[in-house]
Amino acid sequence: MRSARRPRSLLKLLAGAVTGSLLALLVAAAPAYAAISGQSATNTATTVTYKFNYTGAPAFARVYVDTDRNAGTGFAQSGVGANYLLENGNLYSHNGGGWSWTLVGAVTFSASGGVAQWTVNRSSLGETATPNDADLIFQVETPLETSAKYTHTYSGGGGGGSSDVTYTASTDNFANPERGLYHHTGDCDKNDFSLATLQSYRTSQGISLVMCVFYLAEFRNSAISQAALDQFQQQAATVRAAGLKMILRFAYTTSTAGDDAPPARVQSHLDQLAPYLSSNKDVIAVMQSGFIGAWGEWYYTQNFGNAGVISATDWANRKLVVDKILSVLPSDRMVQLRTPKIKRTMYGTTAVTSGQAYNGSWLSRLGHHNDCFLAGPDDFGTYENTAVEYPYLQAETTYTAMGGETCASNPPRSSCPTALSELGQFHWSYLNTDYEPTVLNSWNSGGCLADVTKRLGYRFTLQTATLPTTATRGGALPVTINLRNDGFATPYNPHPVELVLRNTSTGAIQKLALTTDPRRWTAGSATTISQTVTVPAGLPTGSYALLLNLPDPQLSSRPEYSVRFANQSTWEASTGLNSLLRTITVS
After folding, report:
1. Which residues are CB-neighbours of 92 under 8 A, at least 6 positions away?
2. pLDDT at res. 570
């Protein structure tokens, strides 16, 4: 620490020749030029940020900080007694007796575009919970312009302006987008979805997904008819009206004869389907690769290498199909492959990494489905070498979509202990509730079906939050939210996160984006959201409820497509918002 008398301006040159009291008189009498505006002081638990707007190109920008709010102590300036001074990039503490300051150290400072801003550690200012506020004077020179007194009341840890909220978890089963049990009750090209039935899935069973396997058997040697395309459009519209989404697959046959379409025909059909996939992506949760073989499961096929006998040409043709699907399906939707071997053969044996996840690349968009889960040692051909494929699939499904169905009873492998273990290990998001009944009944009698139902996909639970009770327009609003994901997986499609301020009198809402991604709220772990957002300067003063919103970016006006947290007294079904159980006053 060193004492510094920094004569950097005419005013400070005078400081060497006059007493502190005379200097204070000169400073107090300095003219104002109406150049300073937009003053603000905001804080987090550990820092304070000061900010104002100015005109011209002053050599110096300053903030005088009266931490004890006593005009009789510190440096006298425009009715305050400054204990600290910020001048450009340095912080000084007052020594007493006039213009006498000691350098505390450098701080974060910027002055460009007519905005001056500092960020200072609260500890450097000696700020404590008492008096929990400070008087400020903002200044620029030259020309010299001095603001009126501005009082900053601290919020957040150490300042006493925030407090904790503790949330109570719920054990309820409820519908949440793109996860959970799904229904598959008929072929999508022939059996019209019933709006009332789909709505009852959501309201009575907590189910948000249906399977749509759309067969194109009559078009193996021709273009898809307009009637068939219209049928698909109608099915998607019914799903949308009901507030559900589809697990989508196209196929040509249900016969083990494998009478599917040749590669060129599949390509042309995907060109026809492209606009329908694009216009209905909002209700496509995920698309399975399909097209090839019986049921679109890639095993029995007349055109792509039958019953596991697959040549290099066959593999190339298979990859062309997947590449084409990826090219026509909107880039924020994933495609699932039937076995780990398929992806490892066509796209490499290295699993998707955290750095690659959700970047829109084809590798990051390829997930997995297992349609004979727990049916045998290799799940009826799903696995070729579990020693290699298990760790691969576990890593892959951390960031890609995983789901499917059971197909045969095989205790003890198909019983609860293994089921729960592998559903978690491979991050399952969805499972067929209609097949296979023997396996599902064994889970019910074994006591794990209710747990499986709730934990498929994500299950976010608010734990605690540290939230302010007051805020100022144009000022900072620091929030810390602690949550857990007790599900087997994370969301596989994007959902923005918004802090919502809702006026308790008018109901008007203000949404503030939070920079966090629910797809990275790791399954089985806790996550902390800690961010300071800025309250809009034009927000009307008043009382505001704080809420959390995770909407569907394509269906943001539909509350049933927003993510619900598993807590008591937080969910608003009519708005799709999760209450944070805190009301703040904005002044």
Report:
1. 4, 84, 85, 86, 101, 102, 103, 104
2. 97
